[in-house]
Fold this protein.
Amino acid sequence: MTVLAVDIGGTKFAAAAVEDDGTIMARAEVPLKGRTRPEEALLEVVGRVTGEVPAARLEGAGIGSAGPLDPVAGTVSPVNIPAWRDFPVVEALGRLLPGRPVRLAGDGQCMALGEWWRGLPEREPSGAVLGMVVSTGVGGGLVLAGEPYLGPTGNAGHIGHITADPDGEPCPCGAAGCVETLASGPSMVRWARANGWTGEDARALALDAGAGVAVAGLAFRRAADALATAILTASALLDLDRVVIGGGVAAAGPVLMDPLRQAVARNAGLGFLRRLRVTATGLGRDAGLLGAAALVLPR
Amino acid sequence: MTVLAVDIGGTKFAAAAVEDDGTIMARAEVPLKGRTRPEEALLEVVGRVTGEVPAARLEGAGIGSAGPLDPVAGTVSPVNIPAWRDFPVVEALGRLLPGRPVRLAGDGQCMALGEWWRGLPEREPSGAVLGMVVSTGVGGGLVLAGEPYLGPTGNAGHIGHITADPDGEPCPCGAAGCVETLASGPSMVRWARANGWTGEDARALALDAGAGVAVAGLAFRRAADALATAILTASALLDLDRVVIGGGVAAAGPVLMDPLRQAVARNAGLGFLRRLRVTATGLGRDAGLLGAAALVLPR
């Protein structure tokens, strides 16, 4: 069985044909830069995949998208794609695959689902897994009792918008002190620059942290503390077995993961929290595509 | 079909025979004060129920217990019952009902399950419900996708031990600034007394708050803020439909519920959080017994 997986990001679209054992048969990627009609980019990226694996062979489509989105209505309004507001992406792909299921979830949810399906070394049938994407924002998704948990309106997993600091700075979501205001790439860069760092972006900040520049290291430890609070909060509520971290900021590696694991270990109170394993993604950028495929593949 | 429900509290044991429509056929309660052998109290409270509904008619038993507990091993170690450490309560009741299922969950989990099963005005098949017990501690439980969610080790729902204030006071659990350090009855009383209040307990504090004593009202607003943070955190993660609040402190009524609803409305950022309904328990003290019964009743 083969399905179409589509990943709608803020700067590019990706698509793949995925087998039911997780094998990626064909893939394509199209940058959005300079495009005024993103739906043309969507048709192009899907067309490249169906050029290799005919649409007639695809038994459904799973879509992971940057938010906000409305999985019930099947529409997306990605913050970084102003031309799409309530764009009916499920309907658009449904026209290409008539009569076959098309499902939509958030990019963080798809990443979590992909890591759970293909990234973990062993499958835990009753596992409780949180996947986190630490990048331009902080997103996430949940697998509970061995099933993707998307929530009644499809919005579960918004770990970037839980409170890490009630007295913290305002968040674009309308609340204050959200994890995202402390641990997203842009918020780390903003904080470092306000404290004397002169670099440009999160990648440079990670390099400086690795090279021992104090303020850069502090920016990562501050983000790690916020992420640890979020992880322990989710674990106290959900009795998690495992947290998998991906995304551009997480790609920094030990400068994030070391202080993060230390903060989780230091602040874990209740006994059952201490069995939690926090690991970096095993799938990298494929996690989102595999998770999107998993939305429509039998498990 | 009739099952036995048992509620193991820190100061009393309760038991009931419960029908599969939620009708309570017989009930008993035994205080623990002055007892050195709590298992005798357990046999006594169950014996009073089986005196009215014979044990042969009971098709299983559900137990809700104060924590900590180990639902996998079937043992309980309630903080306020020092004579019980790893007491094998599932085995003890299994001897009374040989060959029939005996299940154990936390008291907060049972309260949530009872409210979901019998307390809500309408059943929401795919509902996501958080039940909270605000009392000597702050506990809770979850119903997700229309099923009780207890977690891989049975410890889901520990909402009293999520962080409300990272710079807050130490919590007996080992972490700092847990919701329980701000919103449990004893923590509210401690804070009020440190700020000039001279009353004795949470009940007196609620009366004073209702009578307009400023420091008492502030103690409730402070607790309400912490509970609102916890509720919005759980909702961002789990896309909750509803939160039901019970327990001794919640029985104070509007002095807690009014500032709590206001804080939830004020701090709800993301759009999907705004549909959340926060209500006081509809079942009162029966919620725990009904939820314990629901652990073994077909749903």
